[in-house]
Amino acid sequence: MPDTIAAISTPFGEGGIAVIRLSGPEAAQVAGRVFHGRRPVAELAPRVQHFGKIKDGETVLDEVLLTIFRAPASYTGEEMAEIGCHGGILVTRRLLALLLQNGARAAGPGEFTQRAFLNGKMDLTQAEAVMDLIRAQTDLGLRAATEQLEGRLGSRVRELREALLNVLAHVEAYIDFPEEDISPETGAALTARLEEVRAGCAALLETAGQGRVLREGLRTVIYGAPNVGKSSLLNRLLGYERAIVSEIPGTTRDSIEEVVNLRGIPVRLVDTAGVRHSEDRIEREGIARTLRHLERADLVLHLADASRPPEGEPHPGSLLVLNKADLGEDPAWAGRKAVRISCLEATGSGPGLEPLLEAIAERALGGGFSRAGAGVAINARHQACLSQAEAAVGVALRALAEGLSAEFIAVDLRAALDAVGDIVGRVDTEDLLGKIFSTFCLGK
Prior knowledge:
This protein has helices at 27-32, 89-101, 111-118, 124-135, 139-149, 152-176, 184-205, 208-216, 230-238, 281-296, 354-366, 380-401, 406-424, 430-437; strands spanning 5-8, 15-23, 35-37, 50-56, 59-69, 80-87, 105-106, 218-224, 256-262, 265-271, 299-305, 319-323, 339-340. The protein has 444 residues and is of the alpha/beta class. α6 (152-176) packs antiparallel against α7 (184-205), α7 packs antiparallel against α12 (380-401) and α12 (380-401) runs antiparallel to α13.
């Protein structure tokens, strides 16, 4: 029988209220040992807040609201209790310590959601969506996490799994009757089904880039020579003065990184040191960091001064941005494909930056990011599993085409089935579950 766990579910620090959760077979009893209201906890109606006091012996720690959730109608599928108390640091710690003294143990990161998964309240994709929901930085990310929490991704994965099961059942029937070979007609039908599965895997794999952008942001490096307006651009995009702006070359020595919501797309902006020859050891290190950021960038904004002639060629694959357009454009830029802006004329995301905002959105959308399709956005774990499944299905298709025995085909189909099953959590691997839930907040 699982033990009863407890944790503070609200963020650390002072606030109006805090919530402490308990889950396990003795959640109500543990709460009842410290909660004093009009009725004993055993007689309290579930899903209703009940007023009372938390006492440590005869000492009143706080006046609280207690809610009981009976199994299986709770978040974890177990009996649960939630205590709403005043949000002071000391009072919440004292209250949690009191619950631990009375039979509960401290919950680990994500243990409430892990119990919900193990008790069949959600599949693994829905469990992962809980943290995506908490960490969402834009409306698109929030919507994607919500739809995954509702089971949209899990539903598509289960459809793939069901299709693989049907094909495997047919193949294993031929294994049971070795005197029969797979007929050309049956082989064609099985091939068509497997092609559909492979196409389904490929369609989900195409959302991997979108999922990473939603969770981490579009890594966008602002790059260029000194004094072209890189820090000014960062400040304008953020809407506040984050970086120091100076006419002195080499002012930015280190990279500055911030996340901003641009047209619903989370963009992780990196302002970098201006690239030039320098004898200053610290500035050279800043330039080296700039080059490392360029290697990991999804998008490079190569900023240049429109009022001065070009200095070399733009960084390969970058979006050329000509700043200081208000000063007039040097004839050498005539006919060059670039986004022309003026940080001086921009206020926050005002008209001076409008062309750039449009260009960033187009680059993001062109890279597989879709506002309409944000509901399905796989993460790195899903991507690895789907890649394995797609490869195994490909091998099974080749075996079918070459007329190999059903045993060989079945081995590859089982490998694909296991990989797809791992996505929704049809696994018994404690290491995998421990790794996933260790990234969760305490109390969730």
